[in-house]
Write a structure and sequence with these properties.
The complex is a heterodimer of chains A (418) and B (76). Chain A is of the alpha/beta class. Chain A has two domains: 250 residues, TIM Barrel (Alpha-Beta Barrel); 92 residues, Translation factors (Elongation Factor Tu (Ef-tu), domain 3). Chain A contains eleven helices and 20 strands. Chain A has an eight-stranded parallel beta barrel, surrounded by six helices. In chain A, strand 6, helix 6 and strand 7 form a beta-alpha-beta unit. The radius of gyration of chain A is 23 Å and the shape is globular. In chain B, strand 2 and strand 3 form a beta hairpin. Chain B has a four-stranded antiparallel sheet with strand order 4-5-1-6. A two-stranded antiparallel ribbon of chain B has the order 2-3. Chain B has one domain: 2-Layer Sandwich (Alpha-Beta Plaits), CATH 3.30.70.20. Classes of the chains: A alpha/beta (418), B alpha+beta (76). At the A-B interface, helix 3 of A face loops of B.
Chain lengths: 418, 76
Amino acid sequence: MTAKKFELMAPAGNMECFMAAIQAGADSIYFGVEQLNMRARQTMNFTLEDLPEVGRLAREHNIRTYITLNTIMYDHDISLVKRICNAAKENGITAVIASDLAVLMHAKSIGLPVHISTQLNITNVDSVKFFAPYAETMVLSRELSLRQVRAIYDSIEKEHIVGPDGKAVELEIFGHGALCMAVSGKCYLSLHTENASANRGACVQNCRRTYKVVDIEAGHELEIDNEYIMSPKDLCTIDILDQVIDAGVRVLKIEGRAKGPEYVYTVTKCYREAIDSYFEGTYSKEKVKNWMQELETVFNRGFWNGYYMGQQLGEWTDTAGSKATTRKIYIGKGLHYYSKIGVGEFLVEAQSISVGDKILVTGPTTGLIEAHIEEMHVDDLGKMDKAVKGQKVCLKLDKQIRASDRLYKVVNAEELVS
Amino acid sequence: MAKIVVTHQRDKCIGCNYCVELAPDNWRMSKKDGKSVLLNSVDKKGFHTTYIKPEEEEANRLAAKACPVNIIQVRS
């Protein structure tokens, strides 16, 4: 196998993330359209009107695109399901990621390829056989060990289990990002406490809060080391990537459709480098250490290998939010790009920036630009060391920026606290 | 008698069907886009508004409370 045959799939909640994923080297991108996906609560979702542009960008950059269409479906959803599938087909979207049988049936009827969502919780080869007439690719349950994944892969090869395209069914797993405390998303906590069904993409994340355990009869409160009793750490497989690939996995998916472009960019870039180095034969512990450090700079709850290495119990995080070692702070907006001299002009709307700062520029067309400020020109004052709120600042940037872009400063998380 | 106003921020609806279950006289699921419809409402910049009868208030308050994305408002 070569790196070309192994697919790195990145998440996108909006155009900024979509472009950031492309720039970071994703082979494919998945995203939600309208409300029938597992991030329906998030304001970040694509609409049917966005699909022509998404299809065009995908062709231009030669990447595959997938629409998540994997909530539970009611009768009143079927018309929208059909419209989304039809629009996907028309605009050259590669496949839909589905769990409800109504979606499988409709997609098959119009010749639109399907990926079986992890919501269907595939944990054995017989289930693979059952869904093979409908789907080329299957996302396995996140609770399997790599040994079990390998056994499923071996059976697919041995028994020649093929998808609708006549090729062996490909296995996909989640490689990085948030993990659900319930088995592959089948959680009812949010539904029971807030009427907000996780299975309709409206999870309120009860599991991320702190809890006390009290014996109601005797009134004793149990002593527990960690009050985040059901908030899993985030999944990370960059340090076991060689074993993941050897287990027969062909598609590695990064979680995070609700996360920002800097997250998508950093995580995708690290895994891109790791996958390429594996196939070049240069994957090493030293490199893994560097990638881990980089992955820690963006949102995370601490990392573990999930269930892939066969751990018996989950590992729980000890913080409410992120353990990221850096944070981004909003500074201002883009104004103009002077392409002849390669200079971007911004209006500082909050805080300040100084020479030496690390900055991020993000935007729906720009995607993501990372840079260090080496010099800056402020208003009409010429070369300065610092720009504050209300001032216009010009920065040397190799890539074009636009009026729709936002400028951020990247700071160490410790600095922010003090 | 004070009028009872119901408002629905329809764009954000995730089509869970709770409002229809709790206040079927005032709500329907749209088969077109899978979101709920507040019957006889007027759309003003995405806020769909209508008046309801006093006997319908309780059911609509339950619907507002049940809405997982908090986009239903009942005022009287």
